[in-house]
Amino acid sequence: MNAPTDYLLQLADTALVLAQRNAEWCGHGPVLEEDLAMANISLDLIGQARYLYQYAAAGLGGDASEDRLAYFRDANEYRCLTLVELPNHGPRSGGAACAPDYATTIVRNFLHAALMALLWAELQHSSDTQLAAIAARSVKEARYHLRHCGDWLLRFGDGTAESHARAQAALDHLWPYTQEFWTPSPAELAACAHAGAPHPASLHAAWDNRVDAAIAAATLQRPPNCGFLCRGKFGQHSEHLSYLLAEMQVVARAHPDAVW
Amino acid sequence: MSTPALKDWPLWEVFVRSKQGLEHKHCGSLHAADAAQALRLARDVYTRRQEGVSIWVVPSAAITASNPDDKAELFDPAADKIYRHPSFYDLPDDLGNM
Amino acid sequence: MYTQAMDIPDPAQPAPATPDLADPAQLARFEAVLSGGGRIEAQDWMPAAYRKTLLRQISQHAHSEIVGMLPEGNWISRAPSLKRKAILIAKVQDEGGHGLYLYGAAETLGARRADLIDALLAGRAKYSSIFNYPTLGWADVGVIGWLVDGAAIMNQIPLCRCSYGPYARAMIRICKEESFHQRQGYEALLVMMRGTGAQRRMVQDAVDRWWWKCLAMFGPPDADSEHGAQSMRWGIKRMGNDELRQKFIDATVPQAQILGVTLPDPQLKWNDERGHYDHGPIDWEEFRSTLAGDGPCNRERIATRAEAHENGRWVREAALAHARKQQQRAQGAGT
Ligand SMILES: [Fe+2]
Ligand SMILES: [Fe+2]
Question: Could you tell me the residue ranges of all domains in chain B?
Fold first, then answer.
């Protein structure tokens, strides 16, 4: 059977919002070579989001389209993981200005790619053949993102006192948001029951292994599993998503009838 | 031991094999702190349009080049060894391809 | 792109006033290669003035690509469709790549990228005037692709035959990518012109703001141009400013007609006798003051580049520190 639309949207929203955050670095990266590499990660994620939205739109019918889904839903309709919507810097209230921090970006992408490398690998065997096909191409991308960001994590941890401190601070800041990975949403339970998607909790041990090894190699400390349990997958977001969408959607919404 | 502060990451030369069966060809350079990183970044810099199936990176400093002032003595002596080339030999037409 | 207008004196790298004290035999060999249409390679002997002029031109070209990421990058977050967002990221990324290839070509002349970037951020190096204008609407992205990248291609294709090998090879790679830039821009505008009235007005507004800046981008008339003649003789510059500008106008007018936009020049009309379009006067005062630092966005562009560079310092240092530790660990294990 096919995966429920909400499940596709959860995956698509997560990919798009992370792409939007990563693309903030385009033209502002720490070094030219890395600027190009991060743009490639953004492009991979936008590509994944587009396949998923197109598939979801086909199922919804009517006037649904990838751009209607991306540009004409509000924050409370978005189903992305809270982790990916946070700004590229340490903890702040919504709208508060703060210089971007590459450690936050790298750690966030690393934690997320470690999840997606596992999830896409499983989804290749979904009974939803179209989702399985999307998973088959996405898993290679996720593995590359994991390698790229994992290499940086090692360099930050093992690099200078400043890079070590920044990487540890980013881990401490972002870690609580990973707890959301393992708490199933209704869409995930339905996909698990009917479309051969894995139960989120079933990926936890493998994720722990991979992440723990990278953190240890980087001589960083794994933060404890505690703190607020966020619920982005349920449509309950941080203060930051609405700002991100306001900016992303402004031109499209100003010209609702336009084709681009 | 103290190492003088480097402003730039070291320079690497990048060679890309465009498809299986062809040789690696020099396509440019980039900066990276170490070999593993150079390889990874070369993928993002030089193969964005499916230009390659394999990459080599070499520290630019490790390349020993011939001196252009020696061009005459290194390369000119080959100019009159035309007997090395197959077209030097006139063979009868009815021999066919050889 | 963007080096055409660069034969303007640069206080950071003044052209040497005195002729080279070169070995006449070497000079003769150099001249023979040039007049035979050959290429000079990095290790070949070359006159100091040739090296200096090349280095100035290539580094200004590289800076232009990097600063050029900012005006278009300004619209990545707001691109009105996912397809356009992806195209724009890929395009801005390409410009970063162009900067990288060109810094690489400059490095073959003995420069260090870090020093070139320092000169840019300290305001000692020039880059194309065009990027000191603001992008005020989404249509600007399409118009920049069509006109600015279009002008760049005009300028860059002849540079693929530049006498300096590493520069020529970088230009070949860049030109392949530039044609994607111009086509995506023009196609985005075509779609908008077939859309709503508001979309058509956006496009016309952007064309009105960018047209004259693009014409100025080719640089002052050849008569006023300083080291143009020398650069032509050296094969570093292959066509004159006016000639390229005319070529650009002649190619662009029919494209504007197909698009359905008006180019904002009442004097623009076909001259049968010349076989070219005539155009109105260009405001060279504005061009000069923008190039000298007083355009609408010069300070913003440099400050933004400087901030990114400063924010990235700890990242670059971390990678170097790790590489050194790895090396030391490997040596420690070996002994
Ligand atoms: Fe470019
Ligand atoms: Fe371009």
Answer: 4-95
pLDDT in tens, C90-148: 999 999 999 999 999 999 999 999 999 999 999 999 999 999 999 999 999 999 999 99
Backbone angles phi, psi at A150, to 5 degrees: -65, -40
Residue A134 lies in a domain: yes
Task: State in Å: Cα C295 to ligand 1 middle.
Answer: 21
The DSSP call for residue B27 is E
Residue B2 has pLDDT above 60, yes or no: no
Is residue A66 in a domain? Answer: yes
CB A82 within 8 A of CB A181: no
Domain that holds residue A127: 5-254
What subunits touch chain A, counting only 3 or more CB pairs under 8 A?
Answer: B, C
Give the B-side interface with C, CB within 8 Å.
1, 3, 6-9, 11, 27-34, 37, 45, 48-49, 65, 67-69
Average of per-residue pLDDT across A177-195: 97
As a whole number of angstroms, the distance between CA A50 and CA C175 comes to: 29
Give the pLDDT of residue C230: 85
Query: Is A161 part of a structural domain of the chain?
Result: yes
For B4-95, the fitting CATH number among 3.40.630.30, 3.40.50.300, 3.10.20.520, 1.10.240.10 is 3.10.20.520
List, for residues B16-33, the tens digit of each pLDDT value.
999 999 999 999 999 999
The residue in chain A having the minimum alpha-carbon distance to the alpha carbon of residue C91 is: A39
Rounded Cα–Cα distance for residues B39 and B57 (Å): 6
Query: What Å distances lie between residue C160 and A82, B71, C166, C220, CA to CA?
Result: 49, 25, 10, 22
Q: What is the pLDDT of residue B97?
A: 82
CATH classification at residue A37: 1.20.1260.10
Q: Among C41, C102, C113, C117, pick the best mutation site for testing chain B contact (most B Cβ within 10 A).
A: C113
